[in-house]
Protein: inorganic diphosphatase
Amino acid sequence: MQKRNLSKVVAVMLAASCVALPVQALAAGAAVDYAKLYAGVDYQNKTTCVIGPESQNMDSVGATIGYAYLKSKLGMATEPRVAAPLNRDMSYMLEYFHIPQPAVMNDAAGQQVILVDHSSYAAAINGMKKARIVEVIDRHNLGGLESGGFVYYRNIPTAATSSIVYLSFKETGVEVPKAIAGVLFAGVMSATDNLQGSNVTALDRQAYDELKGIAGVKDISVFHKELEKAAFTHEGMSDKEIFETDCKDYVVKDWAMTISQLECLNDEEFSQMKSRMLAYMNKIPDRNAGMLYFLVLKNRSTGAAELLYTGTMAEAVAKKAFAGADANHAVLKNNADRKRDVEPAIRTELERYMQY
Structure:
């Protein structure tokens, strides 16, 4: 069968998956005919693996587990998968809500899959070009996926993919068990920075409030602090491991760039990590040879954010992109977001530089 580019398939499927399902359904609790939305997708009576991006996080893991459960309740053979063994905060989250860790799937070749929280091969695990993609549930930009048949595609510009999954529960009338509500709530809380992030939507806020009640989380501050403590401790980690904890790669014409993101719990750790990461980045061998390295360092206690970088080109681009930037760092606005604030500014200046 001829492969279809998802950017074209979206034109067909969007009407079924996005436009026809108003967000207001969350408030109304209205059920929709779920089967009709999937009438054009051939699942071939196969077990389908629900999988998040290779760089997984609390939101992608929670959304994966929640969506796999929802699909199973709708009569489809689905199983959640993770891209790698879970780190400390994700493991803590699953233990807290008494949910077993999903099996690891590091190669999708030959599998039938539902992609959650990503829609590009670059973000996916290995072998995704040889997998059979039947659904995509995401909040990010389109990434050029291809499929051998019709794909159910849903994309809503929220802060959390877990909010989209919860909306699907509401629309279909499927009850959310306490444990599933817990992992979805953790996903929303993490992705929205406990509703303090700059990209929080009304859907995120309502999902947060309702899931919190279903999950029975009474003391948000205690729960949030425990997750933070589990998530943002860097004890026993090497400089390389810390730098690569939340790392995204980009290509701009002839230049490849990495923008990592690191969050610290307080002023003391923020100061320590700034010195430690700059020292590490100064030792990266190819920082002046076609590679740009940036790190967004954030202080969770104050919202302060700085951009760190090393290398001649990185410095030149940063000085153009951010007011007040010096040789190795720039002060960003509070709660700056890598996707919304940092990457576009760097890309714009790098593309402008490449024109000369």
About this structure: The radius of gyration is 21 Å.
